[in-house]
Amino acid sequence: MAHFEKLLLIGCGNMGGAMLAGWLAAGEDPARFEVLDPALGAAPEGVKLHREPPADSDHDCVLLGFKPQQLGELGPRFQDLTGPGVTVFSLLAGIDLAMLRAAFPGADAHVRVMPNLAARIGKSPIIMAQSGLEPAASDAALALYDKLGTALWLDDESKFNLATALAGSGPGFVYRFIDALAAAGHQLGLDQGLADDLAMAMVEGASALAAAADISPGELADRVASPGGMTREGLNVLDADNALINLLNETLQATAAKGDELAANATASR
Ligand SMILES: NC(=O)C1=CN([C@@H]2O[C@H](COP(=O)(O)OP(=O)(O)OC[C@H]3O[C@@H](n4cnc5c(N)ncnc54)[C@H](OP(=O)(O)O)[C@@H]3O)[C@@H](O)[C@H]2O)C=CC1
Ligand SMILES: O=C(O)[C@@H]1CCC=N1
């Protein structure tokens, strides 16, 4: 039996919209998708848009793309859309499988999915954890999300918020880094436009090289630092007292902790 032939995306904002665009760009048939979003301007061509929960949809899975803070309010409204024969895929940060099972008890299976915005261009890591999928359905789920980048099962769900902080929120931190690098270049004397262009082009090339290289980013950093040269002086600033590592440690901790808080608040509001 085929799995996940018709996906109903509930909430097509920044992340859901990026995923839908990514699937369509990867050549998926738009007829495979429907969207439920009360105020969305328009769905992509060929994708049916519902303003109200549809009574006649033949979907076999939903993808929850609204905010975790809305679970208590919206969960009860979508019981009819998540009955037997339907798998619930959820993007809701912090909301764990036990909470998804409690919110959508009629569904066949429940899957946490954590992509990032690069799903739009097929370059997102996608972390997944599941409950209730048979092996063939599990393979089909992985294949569906693999079209948006690289999908993988995280065996230990207790690490999901931490993995989310690194890979789901991560682009936000990288964009902040690019901005900060450009701002520093400008403050020290480069024209703003030149600093912006150099920072962007540098990060694009450096990350492509790191992805293609057969040595680690740490070794690559050492290759950039010519003996007795300039780069080592800058690396010394980042490395002093583990400054950068400590900063990122704190960044990931704060981000992951917010996932626990979102879950606790959603539980309290049930
Ligand atoms: N942004 C990101 O990079 C990532 C986000 N996520 C997760 O994705 C989810 C969405 O986040 P994000 O895309 O950033 O947020 P957005 O606010 O951009 O998207 C949420 C969407 O849900 C819609 N919505 C609101 N109420 C309803 C309703 N009753 N029925 C259907 N749709 C509704 C919103 O419409 P309206 O705007 O009109 O209220 C909006 O289009 C969250 O759970 C988040 O944790 C996961 C990974 C990365
Ligand atoms: O900020 C958030 O909560 C979501 C989850 C990961 C990225 N964005």
UniProtKB/TrEMBL annotation:
Broad enzyme group: oxidoreductase
EC number(s) from the headed UniProt entry: 1.5.1.2
Entry keyword set: Amino-acid biosynthesis, Cytoplasm, Membrane, NADP, Oxidoreductase, Proline biosynthesis, Transmembrane, Transmembrane helix
Keyword Ion transport assigned: no
Signal peptide: none
Subcellular location: Cytoplasm
Domain of life: Bacteria
Main subcellular location: cytoplasm
Domain Pyrroline-5-carboxylate reductase dimerisation as annotated: residue spans: 157-262
Transmembrane segments: 7-26
Listed pathway(s): Amino-acid biosynthesis; L-proline biosynthesis; L-proline from L-glutamate 5-semialdehyde: step 1/1
Keyword Cytoplasm: yes
Catalytic reactions on record: L-proline + NAD(+) = (S)-1-pyrroline-5-carboxylate + NADH + 2 H(+); L-proline + NADP(+) = (S)-1-pyrroline-5-carboxylate + NADPH + 2 H(+)
Similarity remark: Belongs to the pyrroline-5-carboxylate reductase family.
Known role: Catalyzes the reduction of 1-pyrroline-5-carboxylate (PCA) to L-proline.
Full protein name: Pyrroline-5-carboxylate reductase
Native organism: Altererythrobacter arenosus
Name of the gene encoding the protein in the UniProt record: proC
